[in-house]
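Just wondering, can you check both lines?
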Amino acid sequence: MKGHKREIISTEPASLKSPVVMSLALHLLIVGIALAGWSWTSPVSEPEPRQISARLVSPEPRPSPVVDDQDQRDRDQERRQQQERERQEEEAERRRQQEQARQEAERQAQAEAQARQRQQEEQQRQQAQAREREQQQAREQEAARQRAEAEAKERERQRAEQERRQQEEAQRKAEEEKRRQEERRKQEEAERKRQEEAARQEAERRRQEAERRLREQQLEALADESDRQREAEARRQQEAAAARAREAQMLSESERYQSLIRERLSQAWYPPSSATEDMTARIQITLLPTGELVNARLVSSSGNTAFDNSALGAVRSLSRYPVPSDRNTFERYFRQFTIEFNPQRLR
């Protein structure tokens, strides 16, 4: 550190190393210290400071506190300058990098623009070539079309000429054929009339015979129809009687099971305390042939939610309903039915 101090001091001007200047600086330091000490004390209680004179004896100046403070300030200033230079260098480096990035971006943008321009030029060239090819194809197609039209016209002329000759030949043959046909027609007409007369006579004979057989068949059919009607009436009456018996049996059995269902629901239903005699809830019930509940739906509300929920709860509380074993009775009366819940009746 001492060598560094001497190096810093040696960089100062030569006038600062003279004994007079050093003495003056020492006097100023002492006066400053005295004034600073005097400013912190009371001016009444403290005596006035005595003046001190000093003289530098050694011809070689030694480092003094003033020189040390100056050296510290110089070092601080040099450090700040060094930091400022580093900051400026960093700023310059950052700007240089930004400039390089900008230049690189401009170069890339220019390269992309050139590439796009080349691509557009290539597209335009290809489009021009495609248009030229299309035009060439159009010209070739037009030439081919004209040739085809000329060939078609020639073929049409030849075909028309051939058709004309064929029509003339066909007309000649048709006239000859017509003459032969007229002769055959006259012969066939005579033969037809002869056959028609024979057929008429035979048909008349057959008609009379058919009428005779038809009258006999009608008489037999009337007799058979009368017998069938009597038998059908007897079967209808028997079936009606059996149906009435089955209906009566099904109705009786359905009423018995309906009574059992009402009894089960009456035992499971607990109307709310707010229920009145005017409240009625209608629940649609859907069952399986085993008596298991499939669905319960409120089709008509009583106007009281608690009342409706109590009715639905009673319906859903039965795990299995009593149903008849007869499938027809179940399908007709118990597959889906509606029951009314009223505090006075369960119908």
Notes: The beta strands are 281-287, 293-300, 336-341.
